[in-house]
Amino acid sequence: MICRIITGLMLLAWLAGVALFFVNQGLDNDVLDVLTALVLTPLGLPWNLAPIFTGGSEAMRLAVALGAPVINVLIVWSLCRVLARRLCPRGC
User: How far is the C-alpha of 56 from the C-alpha of 18, rounded, in Å?
Assistant: First the structure.
């Protein structure tokens, strides 16, 4: 149950960040831009740092910034499932 809550909250935060990004693109608002960065950057660490070190283009940086949190959501989800199977094999 706690795994679903944690994964769901991470997924909702990612969706909120992506929504803020697209709203910001339409409004060109600096406050929303900072808020989007504050939501998406911690969710996507360390994957969103890859284009900085590899020298990716601006489009690649944008795609990685928007998609990197999905990797962390999948990692948390899979770790929760593995731990739940080991700690409670009968489906407690």
Answer: 21
